[in-house]
Amino acid sequence: MLRLLNRALVASFYQQHAGLFLVVFYLLFGAVEGSQIVSYQKSLLLAVSSSPIILFIVLFIWLLYGFKCVHFINKKQTDDAYSFLQALNTLPKNKQYRLWAYVYGMCFLPILIYAILIVIMAISNGHILTTIVTPVFMIGLISLAAKYTYLQA
Fold first, then answer.
1. HSE-up of 135 (CA within 13 Å, CB side)?
2. How far apart are CA 77 and CA 123, in angstroms?
């Protein structure tokens, strides 16, 4: 079932939003000279982990991305080509929720990787707020997205 959801939903999500990812990838990595990319990323991670205002701006952007993911998945659920998703309703409730959490975890993978880097930077610099808020926010965002989709099914 995971393989089917991965191919049907996650792969199509990344295919449909490839332009968005290319722009973000360019802004994060391509806008800087190659020799300065490591110091640029470190300073960007340090800015996010040390400033609560910048952190909350980043979290807000991630929340918007979460809305985009939820909208995409829920739109696919109503599409006739994805009618097989209705079969998920026959599974036990906790299994359904875990499957949706997996789908959203895979959709959030680029953000999860960057969130891990932010937390590592926050821990190494002693920024307690970021160390606590970032993982709690990501777990909450994925959980709420999975719960919403589970309730809509």
1. 9
2. 40
